[in-house]
């Protein structure tokens, strides 16, 4: 069982403590009113031996309660403490069967529910130990030790009757049936915990996937936006001296691209908010219809884009349309960053009824930014998008030493 971060704030712990104290108090109160085989002073043995036997009882009761608490954090250590305590308890002058029966039932449930290693061995120990402990606690000290008052009835008289065999068999049957019952209850608890853990792991994995998706989306939006802004700013700076109108166009493009990026980032980040007045909307999610605008932005940044469509475009789901847009956005962004204003050929091949083939080729050139010291996430994200839909992505160079990105997506 898992350790609580702040153990004393766990309400189930205090509930367990209260229940154990109540059961222990009732047992001790009932035992003090029972005459017969429940106190060492009843037997004709030295005082020191009486103290030892009484000590067995008190130590066992305390150790049993501590072992049950210890199991919450150290399951195997708690089992061993309880096991040893029960062995000592059966040799005490107290009637061990009532409290032993409750502990064995609880341990049967606990082992089935929370123990992963050695469950079968512990089950055998429960069954055999219950049978042996029942006989030992009955024989000792009631039959083995001499009593002070010979007129008191002895357990030997009980064993001479025919009821002894029947009572022993019924005790064994009751112990086995109880262990089996609580073992099955423990298995139900175990399956419930495993299902809860599976749902918890699934939720955590979903959260990780969603965070990665948002990070990938933000990367694509910001990378494309900054690349276009850098290209327009550089072009406007040089054109401003000779053609102020072209410089103003560059500034207008920078403004528009920045606003579009800001809108998309706000939409993506809105899913992280917890406000009850959430006004987020997916209506701005780009898809196939936004590809033309993406190409125009790239052309205004200085690149020469040749966009071809083969076959008849078909309707796709929103998520597939977004992935197609992001794939093209990433390839165009990489072309501008690492090759600059070079010709870019884009082909969208819809001729296959079940597959969409996307190819993007660009010449080598001088990039707008310095080569990064560490690899970026853009191309990794591109491959992840393709795999997300069961497709493939291949990034290589062709025979003319042009950068080539080939993506295949099921549709």
Automatic annotation (TrEMBL):
GO molecular function list: kinase activity
EC numbers on record: 2.7.13.3
Parts of the chain that traverse the membrane: 12-30, 51-74, 80-103, 123-144, 164-188
UniProt keyword annotation of Phosphoprotein present: yes
Enzyme class, UniProt record, top EC level: transferase
Source organism, top-level taxon: Bacteria
InterPro entries in alphabetical order: HATPase_C_sf (IPR036890), Sensor_HK_TwoCompSys (IPR050482), Sig_transdc_His_kin_sub3_dim/P (IPR011712)
Catalytic function, reaction form: ATP + protein L-histidine = ADP + protein N-phospho-L-histidine
Pfam families (UniProt xref): HisKA_3
Keywords: ATP-binding, Kinase, Membrane, Nucleotide-binding, Phosphoprotein, Transferase, Transmembrane, Transmembrane helix, Two-component regulatory system
Domain Signal transduction histidine kinase subgroup 3 dimerisation and phosphoacceptor positions: 210-273
Protein name per UniProt: histidine kinase
């Amino acid at each position: 069982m898992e350790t609580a971060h702040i153990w004393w704030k766990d309400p189930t712990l205090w509930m367990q403590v209260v229940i154990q104290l109540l059961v222990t108090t009732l047992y001790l109160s009932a035992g003090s009113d029972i005459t017969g085989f429940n106190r060492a002073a009843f037997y004709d043995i030295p005082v020191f031996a009486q103290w030892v036997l009484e000590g067995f009882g008190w130590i066992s009761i305390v150790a049993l309660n501590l072992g049950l608490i210890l199991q919450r954090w150290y399951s195997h250590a708690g089992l061993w403490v309880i096991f040893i305590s029960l062995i000592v308890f059966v040799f005490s002058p107290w009637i061990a069967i009532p409290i032993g029966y409750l502990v064995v039932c609880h341990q049967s449930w606990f082992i089935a529910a929370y123990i992963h290693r050695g469950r079968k061995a512990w089950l055998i120990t429960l069954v055999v130990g219950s049978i042996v402990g029942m006989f030992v606690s009955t024989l000792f000290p009631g039959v083995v030790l001499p009593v002070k008052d010979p007129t008191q009835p002895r357990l030997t008289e009980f064993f001479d009757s025919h009821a002894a065999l029947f009572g022993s068999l019924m005790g064994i049957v009751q112990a086995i049936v109880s262990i089996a019952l609580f073992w099955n209850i423990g298995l139900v608890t175990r399956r419930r915990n495993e299902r809860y853990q599976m749902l918890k792991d699934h939720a955590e994995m979903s959260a990780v996937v969603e965070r990665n998706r948002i990070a990938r989306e933000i990367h694509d939006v910001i990378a494309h936006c900054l690349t276009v802004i850098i290209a327009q700013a550089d072009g406007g700076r040089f054109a401003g001296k000779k053609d102020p109108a072209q410089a103003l166009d560059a500034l207008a493009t920078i403004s528009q691209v920045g606003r579009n990026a800001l809108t998309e980032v706000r939409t993506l980040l809105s899913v992280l908010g917890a406000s009850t007045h959430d006004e987020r909307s997916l209506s701005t999610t780009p898809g196939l219809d936004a590809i033309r605008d993406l190409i125009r932005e790239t052309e205004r940044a200085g690149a020469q884009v040749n966009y071809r469509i083969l076959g008849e475009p078909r309707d796709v789901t929103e998520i597939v349309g977004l992935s197609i847009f992001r794939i093209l956005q990433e390839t165009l962004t990489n072309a501008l960053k690492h090759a600059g204003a070079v010709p870019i050929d884009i082909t969208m091949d819809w001729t296959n009824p079940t597959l969409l083939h996307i190819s993007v080729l660009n010449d080598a050139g001088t990039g707008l930014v310095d080569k990064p010291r560490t690899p970026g996430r853009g191309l990794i994200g591109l491959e992840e998008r393709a795999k997300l839909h069961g497709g493939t992505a291949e990034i290589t160079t062709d025979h003319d030493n042009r950068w080539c990105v080939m993506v295949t997506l099921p549709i």
